[in-house]
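Problem 12. The chain below contains 214 residues. Write out its predicted structure in token notation.
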Amino acid sequence: MRFGSLRRVTPISETFGYDRGLPIDRYYIERFLQEHSGTIRGRVLEVGDSTYTSRFGSDAAVERADILDVRADNPRATIVGDLTEPDRFSADAFDCVICTQTLPYIYDVHTAVRTLHRILRPGGTVLATVTSVSRIWTKGDRLYGDYWRFTSRSSRLLFEQVFDSEEIAVASYGNVLAAASFLYGLATSELRRDELDYNDPDIPLLIGIKARKA
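Solution.
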């Protein structure tokens, strides 16, 4: 085994690979959202910004785009709130909620999922992604921590607490090379497409959950 430049005990990038290109986990997030882009319609809520709403939801399908943030200083946020405080949100308000890489940073993740169910209209869909393999992100500890890593099984059980099991679809993305490269901080462009697209359910990098409110 020749490790070459990977024989090191510190990552190549300290910023998940953003300084080298598109982070590898973002490749899988975008793939998941593209696969389910047909559910991004009506009134859509996205956490943090509206990047994915604009990219994967068509102007004809999206009637209104809202942005949720726990931070009051986000000028783009149309709703300031915490998913662990369900009573602060109107029930049955959204046709789609895009919740990427958010649940790992919420300690009371069970309440957060109940809130996602609460704010969806009947027939509405949440598109969530969670981390299976990642470095710990400590720079946001003043606002929130980095608490959880998920498997396909734990993701399904978490959402089955509030969503009907037949309305949930869980998919895993990644493999040992993608996971190791992400930990080193490499970018998507540094792996071949076939290396990125090979799926090993035993070593996922990312989990995608599509859950529909009956």
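Discussion. The chain has six helices and seven strands. Students who got a different answer should revisit the alignment rule from Section 12.3.
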